[in-house]
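Figure S4 source data
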Amino acid sequence: MRGAALEAEGRVFHTLDALRGIAAIGVVVFHMSQLFAPIAAPGGYLAVDLFFMMSGVVLSHAYEVRFRAGMGTLGFMRARLIRLYPLYLAGALFGIVVTWASLHGLNSQNWDSSSLSQAVALALFFLPNFSAHPVNEIFPLNIPCWSLFFEILVNLLFVVLWPLLTSRRLIIVSLLTGVAVGVAIAHTGSIDLGSTGSSFGVGLVRTIFGFSVGVLIARHIPRVHRGQNNLGVLAIVAVVGIAIAGRPQLEFRALWDAVCVLVVFPLIVYFGTLIDPDPRLRSIATFLGLTSYAIYLLHSPLSSIMSSVTRFFGVGSGAPYIGLAVMVFLLAGCWLIDRYIDMPIRRYLGRIIPKTRTPRAES
């Protein structure tokens, strides 16, 4: 109980917490669209770019001071894996169970024991699967994990290259990767890329761009106390909601994605670091932030289950009420998972996994 309270009190960017939760909900609506109709989030995949930028802000703010104090690669990656792996493993195991069940059911994706064994072995070690059989996804057992893999990879690059990452060089990296992202959008018509082996390079560039922008934002936040502005927070949340739920005509989809990722989201994240909700809304923002990671990692296997259920029973007039019920279940369940499972496991791992010693600065 006390640990959960301290976790909430220690959160810094409350507006970003709210954005993280709204983005995770958008991803769920995107992937479970049949349950929410006519409510829709056709741009739900854009949430991933927002996640990358917010991750850059939070990690730069939390760790660059520690890097200067001597924290090295092993210490940083230990902290990141303790934070990310337990729920990643839960999502992977959930995906394994659901896929194994499908193997003994309709098996619409044509899994076999060999391909499942290979996918399981790679997933447990957090490694991408490039076989493209039977599912053309690098994390076929829990597809959203592709972005988490790139997050870890870019985290590693961040700590290894940190002594070289001046703000000027980060600006160059952001500009170059931003151009690459724009080219990818123009070529394919959207930025819904990165989860397959053929789009691996785009996924990496997409992550580097978002993370680099986030680090730059964190380094240039005014060193003043953030003001409380509920109207401003709600406006920021509304802009993200419009970006995710917008339905541009097909020929304007590429332009919509490019403007959101390259212009709107960096501005939104920057302004989100400048203002906070007041205490009345802060608890909601904290709740959304605490549940967002579990929602993102656990919703895809649940979506597979719901697809099987609706295949047999149909959705009919049940949508969007079925979808809203699933969302309530996810929010409540993921809050319980975060509070009573994930946080205790992370605290336990923090105690038993040896810390690397920080070298003392020479006098």
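Figure S5 source data
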Amino acid sequence: MVVRLEEVMPPTVESASRINLRWIVRLRWGAVAGQVITILFAARIVHQSLPLGALLSVCAALAAFNLIMHVWLLRGGNPSERACGLNLMTDVLALTALLALSGGAYNPFAALYLVHITIAAVVLPARWSVALTLTSIVAYTLLQLLPEGPLALGSEEQLLLHLRGRWVAFLVAAAFIATFTLRMSQSLRRREVELERTRSDAEAAERLAALGTLAAGTAHELNTPLGTIAILAGELAAQLEGDRRAEAEEIRRQVDRCKEIITGMLAPRGGADLEEPKEFEVAPVLEAAVRRWQQGRPGPAPRVEIQPQAARARARLPVHAFERAIANLLDNAAEATEHRSAREVRIALERHRGDLRIEVADNGVGVPEPLLRRIGEPFFTTKEPGRGTGLGLYLARHVVERQGGEMTVTSAEGRGTQVTLTVPEAGA
């Protein structure tokens, strides 16, 4: 079995360049709005006239460029580092044009060059960061050579206006830098979590491929003795009566169950990838899965609670994989409570905001807090060596996540565990 990385790579993982450009576009909308407000405000308080038409034309061109970028991203554009670098370079050139038309180096908003330099240093590779820094330095140097404009410091009033403008420019620069770096770092941290999960799924897929190879050999070796046991059990059942005959029939059922388990092991992820999802009523399938799980098992049966509103609710899932997922969860709950004097395993179905929730709860030993975050990872188990493979919860998670659902686990050490499978309700 060959597992390709694209089979486990979630489509929601964004590239770093796309995250960066998305935030650059968001900040540019704020920058354009701030530029227009500042220009209109300055036109009223500066005694000498400002070239309003030219200034607003630069803002309009920048807004049009930003709209193009915004639409491109919405349509699934996949930007590169070069695209991010050119976008920031466009912002530097637009800022230079605005400064050249409104006072040049005397304009206190020249401090906004530092915003672009900071953003470039955070999100761009070294060559682009250096290029944008040099461009900003050259642009600011050229502004020094321009003739004095309407913001030249010729009087005490203009000096006071300049100082206030510098204070506003500092606030704007600080707000933009803080907003961008904080928001972008949060987006990148989320991406790192998604990538880590992707890597974990890829490693699990490779292990499952190895497990499939091992299972194929095991099935080949076990099919003959299992078939022999089934035939002998059938012959015994035909010759015996009463309880002895029932025991022989039970042997045959258990042999058939062994064959089903082996068949499931031969398919990747317990067959969830191969089985076609279909729409079905969840409640009767859930109750039937619990009954089949309980057959031949000692101890009290799980308590099944179905919310009246969820009795006819439907979901779209691979049915047999879903039943195996429920059996795996019940196995875990039964093993967690096997040493309890008052064992309690509860399985519930309810509707919640257009979703269906299947909860499997027990009053068992629970899971220690440091290990709780790893529950559901492939091949991770809290059981004693030899008692678990660490695949039960992983397969259950995979069944629901493949159809847009999720699995959550809450637990308190010594007080029990609750596993919740949430799946979209069909037609909700």
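Strands lie at 278-281, 303-306, 314-317, 345-352, 355-362, 406-412, 416-424. The radius of gyration is 33 Å.
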